[in-house]
Write a structure and sequence with these properties.
Elements lengths: L3 E2 L10 E5 L8 E2 L3 E8 L2 E5 L2 E5 L4 E4 L5 E5 L5 E7 L1 H7 L6 E3 L12 H16 L3 H15 E3 L12 H16 L6 H8 L3 H12 L3 H19 L4 H7 L5 H12 L3 H10 L14 H7 L5 H5 L2 E9 L5 E2 L7 E6 L6 H13 L4 E5 L9 E4 L2 E4 L2 H12 L3 E6 L26 H19 L1 H4 L3 E7 L11 H18 L4 E6 L8 H11 L6 E7 L1 E3 L20 E3 L4 H16 L5 E8 L13 H10 L9 E4 L31 H11 L3 E6 L2 E6 L2 E7 L6 H5 L16 E22 L6 H8 L7 H10 L3 E19 L4 E8 L3
Parallel strand pairs: 1-3, 12-29, 14-15, 15-18, 18-19, 19-20, 21-24, 24-25
Antiparallel strand pairs: 2-9, 4-7, 4-9, 5-6, 5-8, 10-11, 13-26, 16-17, 22-23, 26-27, 27-28, 28-31, 29-30, 29-31
Length: 815
């Protein structure tokens, strides 16, 4: 791929250059310094490296120093402005510049979260409207550097497979930028980098378009222009300070470029009252005028914190908090519960999180040996199942049992999806399936009693048919399976709870409407209705053909992600559907919920998950459900491969080594809340139980738009989130009297996130016992404890960083 390196025509002493609708940018090119593009109208495709970014009206995007790019309008009415900032000016005021990488793309944030970019727009517009002033440039640079930059972890290697030549040249360009004042030569660079100097000379001229010597002189001239304008020193000093060997060579270079002597150039600049910006017509842009007129407080530039004052009376009328999060926890396949490690994890979890039901699938899978064949024929064996059910009873957990998958001896075809080869086909003969279910139900009732089993849930299959994932038969075949099975169970006892497979929203078909209509028209029992909600979706059109008999490699499944309100929208949609199409009193349950079911998504391990869980469980839409079951309790999940790394993106609250993730403590904090809400806002909730007070504050930020669309590969860092602010909450509680024990828990990337500590440790794949114990101990929120005597008022200031949670418990002392 051919590149060109261009020089930005900065005016003498001016650190910026502005172009409007620059048609020359359509060629792939690179240049020094930073470039900020602001699209006013139309559409624009900006290619940076190998990635394409599609900009729409009011979008901002920054091009880094020497980053290859091109800018191509996609509509006739496209109008945009490009602000170039000189690298030498930036380096003069920030010596870290060459070690920084900027990530400023407003398309990352949703439309309702543009505050960090609006600050850039305001500073940009004021800079354009007023004309060039160095302090305005520095203000803009200071903000984007503090907000959108990070240090490069290491220099870009010169042996990358793609574009090796220009990576070498870019290192030379950076070297020139840094060392132009000295006696840097291409021969010297060649010796240091162990290259042939002729080879470097050839590839430099090929990629940059001029010789190394000519480029070095251009950089020195650029720097000298600042000195000519800003310093009254002699021409000799300017020449030497800019890297020229003497005044004569400097005089010649300036004369050749400007047809003026250095003194004439200085005089000309002083006489001209130029504004430094070639902006003919651009200042008339409506967006420029709009943002230039907006107020901007100094703290919005200097601080990355949003402050809020909250005054609440604890005696105010409240409402009941519907706790949907502690009803159901998923464990995946029933076979998982034969693993002693998972049993220990659930037992420990049960002590901190008051789970009521444990949901599992695959009770008829081959590994549980439920069907045995001998010379007398087939018989049913419930030994392993009973061992699992006994265990749940010991922990005082109620089973939520999904009747699946089809035993191979009863299956009509050999189709499977997950690692454990759960067969997804309809039965060869319905009578065989019904005899299996009959035997299982009678085993449960005879062993534990009808009253006990009537408190359990029995879900008939896992998910509704879609692309053959959970059910390889037709929708009609599933309807018949559900009808026959539900009638059988209800025939044993009307008190037993039955419900169908979960709606999965994989397709635009209204499967729920069809199923509810079928049940209503055929008098099919329906005690509860369920759905599974995830924010990831398979791009089925892009999914390659797969074997129908082999497990699917999850790494080959192309995903995209839904908007931040996805869970809320689906909960409200299902609530309306049940109210409209099924008037009978049935329970609505979200059987499986998580950000993603992709067990390789690293976000499951991060501090982000704690705020994601809390934000959704406290949303008003959550109350539409009787229960929302999290997927899953542990990373020990037999549906997919379990990776060797301790943190690999598993969907569990606890990893395979028993280390608790940030998501785990989200449920711990939610469980500490009282039953009555007396105050609630966007980032907080305040509850009470008797005279005890509970406060939960959190700072939730969603993944950015680029990550959601799959436009960029997954980055194992926190760079894939929308830009957001820390929160500073000033809380004032009124009408609170007495002596209280105050506990303050802090959960964030520095406190309680085992994943972040593991990253800091070096991401070791094989942890020994000492290292595992260390991470188990550090994966707890920090805790501050103090005693307070309150006489009516309680003041508290909470700093909540992005991905952070603060939990305050005020327990009253009684004398």
């Amino acid at each position: 791929m051919k590149y060109s390196v261009i020089q930005i025509p900065y005016l003498p002493g001016c650190p910026i250059h502005v172009k409007v609708n620059d048609t020359n940018s359509e060629e792939l090119h690179r240049h020094s310094g930073l470039e900020i593009i602001w699209l006013f109208t139309g559409k624009l495709k900006v290619t940076i490296g190998q990635n394409d970014y599609h900009l729409h009206e009011n979008n901002l995007l920054l091009i880094n120093h020497f980053e290859s790019h091109r800018v191509v309008p996609q509509a006739l009415n496209t109008r945009f402005i490009q602000l170039h900032v000189d690298s030498l000016f930036i380096f003069k005021h920030n010596h870290d510049f060459y070690n920084l990488n900027y990530d400023l793309k407003s398309i990352k944030n949703s439309e309702d979260n543009q505050h960090p970019y609006d600050v850039v727009r305001i500073l940009f517009s004021r800079l354009v409207g007023k004309g060039e002033e160095n302090k305005d440039v520095l203000r803009l640079l200071g903000y984007i550097t503090s907000r959108f930059s990070k240090k490069l972890s290491s220099p870009e290697p010169d042996n990358r497979a793609s574009n090796k030549e220009f990576n070498i040249v870019q290192q030379i360009l950076n070297r020139v930028e840094l060392d132009f004042k000295g006696k840097v030569t291409l021969n010297q660079i060649a010796q240091e980098q162990h290259y042939n100097s002729s080879y470097l000379s050839d590839i430099f001229r090929k990629n940059v378009g001029v010789t190394f010597k000519a480029y070095l002189e251009e950089v020195r001239i650029r720097y000298s222009l600042f000195l000519l304008q800003n310093q009254e020193t002699s021409i000799t000093n300017i020449a030497l300070s800019s890297g020229f060997s003497d005044e004569k060579s400097y005089y010649k270079a300036i004369k050749n470029k400007f047809s003026l002597t250095p003194l004439q150039l200085r005089k000309k600049h002083l006489e001209e009252n130029h504004d430094g910006l070639a902006l003919t017509g651009s200042s008339k842009e409506q967006l420029i005028h709009h943002y230039a007129s907006l107020p901007l407080e100094l703290k919005a530039i200097e601080e990355n914190t949003i402050q809020s004052t909250i005054v609440k009376d604890i005696q105010a009328d409240g409402y009941e908090l519907k706790q949907v999060w502690n009803k159901i926890m998923n464990i995946g396949s029933a076979n998982t519960l034969l693993n002693q490690n998972i049993r220990d994890q659930i037992k420990e979890m049960r002590e901190e999180i008051p789970i009521e039901y444990l949901r599992f699938e695959g009770v008829f899978n081959q590994e549980l040996d439920v069907i045995q064949k001998d010379r007398d024929g087939l018989k049913f064996n419930w030994k392993f199942i009973n061992n699992i059910l006994d265990y749940t009873r010991e922990l005082e957990l109620k089973p939520f049992i999904c009747l699946s998958y089809m035993p191979l001896l009863f299956a009509s075809k050999s189709t499977s999806f997950f690692n454990y080869q759960g067969n997804t086909s309809p039965p060869k003969e319905m009578s065989q399936w019904l005899s299996l279910v009959q035997s299982f139900m009678m085993n449960c009732i005879n062993r534990y009693g009808l009253d006990t089993v009537s408190e359990w849930y029995f879900q008939i299959w896992t998910e509704l048919p879609a692309y053959g994932i959970h059910w390889s038969g037709t929708l009609v075949q599933y309807f018949e399976l559900y009808k026959q099975t539900a009638l059988l169970i209800k025939g044993i006892s009307p008190s037993l709870k039955v419900g169908p497979a979960a709606e999965n929203f994989h397709t635009d078909e209204q499967l729920s409407e069809k199923l509810l209509g079928f049940c209503r028209e055929n008098a099919v029992p329906l005690d509860f209705y369920s759905c599974n909600i995830y924010h990831n979706r398979v791009k089925f059109k892009d999914w390659l053909e797969r074997s129908q008999t082999s497990p699917v490699d999850i790494k080959l499944i192309p995903f995209q992600y839904e908007a931040k309100n996805h869970t809320r929208n689906l909960l409200e949609k299902m609530h309306r559907l049940l109210e409209t199409h099924y008037k009978e009193d049935i329970e609505f349950i979200v059987t499986r919920w998580n950000f993603s079911w992709d067990v390789t998504n690293f976000l499951h391990d991060t501090a982000f998950m704690a705020t994601f869980i809390i934000d959704h469980m406290l949303d008003h839409s959550a109350a539409h459900a009787k229960a929302i079951g999290f997927l899953s309790a542990s990373d020990i999940l037999y549906e997919w491969d379990i990776k060797s790394n301790p943190f690999f993106g598993g969907t569990g609250l606890v990893n395979t080594e028993g280390i608790k993730k940030s998501a785990y403590y989200a449920f711990v904090f939610l469980s500490k809340l009282g039953s009555t809400v007396f105050a609630k806002g966007k980032n907080y909730i305040m509850t009470k139980r008797g005279e005890n007070i509970q406060i939960l504050a959190y700072n939730h930020t969603y993944p950015d738009q680029l990550f959601m669309k799959g436009d960029q590969p997954d980055q194992h860092s926190y760079d894939i989130f929308e830009e957001s602010n820390d929160l500073l909450l000033n809380i004032h509680l009124q009408n609170i009297y007495g002596t209280y024990k105050c506990k303050q828990y802090s959960l964030n990337r520095n406190h309680g996130s085992a994943y972040d500590e593991w990253i800091r440790m070096g991401e070791y794949a094989d942890l020994n016992h000492e290292e595992t114990d260390y991470l188990k101990n550090i994966s707890r929120p920090s805790l501050q404890l103090k005693q307070l005597t309150l006489t009516g008022d309680f003041h508290l200031t909470l700093h909540v960083p992005v991905h952070g949670v603060e939990c305050i418990i005020l327990n009253k002392f009684y004398k």
